[in-house]
Amino acid sequence: MALEQIAEVVQNEKLLDAIEDEFNGVIVEVNEPMDPKLFHSKLKTSVSHWRQQGKKGVWIKLPIKLVSLVEPAVNEGFWYHHAEPTYIMLVYWIPKSGNTIPANATHRVSIGAFVMNQKREVLVVKEKIGKTLKGMWKFPTGTADEGEDVCDAAVREVKEETGIDTEFVEILSFKQSHKALFGKSEIFFVCILRPKSFDIQIQELEIEAAMWMPLEEYITQKYVQSNEFMKDITEKYKEKVDLDEVHTEFSIIKKKFTQNFLLSLRALVSSLK
């Protein structure tokens, strides 16, 4: 074996395994236990090597079982980027130029659902948890799961909370708010759904009660009247009901508009991650 090849083998043994990303950076995934001191040594050598190669961002993905390796990485200038139930992601910017590492997801997507039967009764729930709306009648709400479309999230949340099967009709309105859960922003979509079943079976863990409430009674609630957004969307919903736009079949134009809107929405949400 040539001396150059031997030197390369020795060098590689001192480096952390990594793959290149599409932005001239590297991603390190450590899956097997490693002594923190050995990891620290390899990390220092690796960063120096990547600096010579002109690399930019360095990502380190550590499973929760290897949390002991976080401190050595932080001591080398790495910082937390995000965490999931099974891992933590750290990142480091090598160049002295401005850092272009994208921020962690800035928004979460939440939904609310108007569901009305042929008797002009809307589906409402009382939640067991939460200080703000506990004990108040409100339409079902929830948060979209990762990779889940808004329309599917609305149908799922209604099914989980009330046992009612529904189909998506359209998005009635949406709003953006800031400084929500843990300081993140939130986009809240209010969807109109059409019921396919009517017998309520509540989710006992989170829901205290659920019922079909006359639309006019729902509108007069203090909670609805005192909240500008809720009052506005409820009035818009009533206008649609009065014009019989909720339970009639969609026109081809409305179907096309809804499909195009959801495609644009999916692109928007992806850009915020």
Automatic annotation (TrEMBL):
Q: Which PROSITE patterns match?
A: NUDIX (PS51462), NUDIX_BOX (PS00893)
Q: Domain of life, per the record?
A: Eukaryota
Q: Which residues form the Nudix hydrolase domain?
A: 106-237
Listed A to Z, the keywords are: Hydrolase, Metal-binding
The reply on keyword rRNA-binding is no
CDD domains given in the database record? NUDIX_ASFGF2_Nudt6 (cd04670)
The molecular function GO annotations come to:
ADP-ribose diphosphatase activity; metal ion binding; NAD binding; NADH pyrophosphatase activity
Pfam families for the chain: NUDIX, Nudix_hydro
As for family, the record states: Belongs to the Nudix hydrolase family.
- What's the name of the protein? Nudix hydrolase domain-containing protein
The organism is: Cannabis sativa (Hemp)
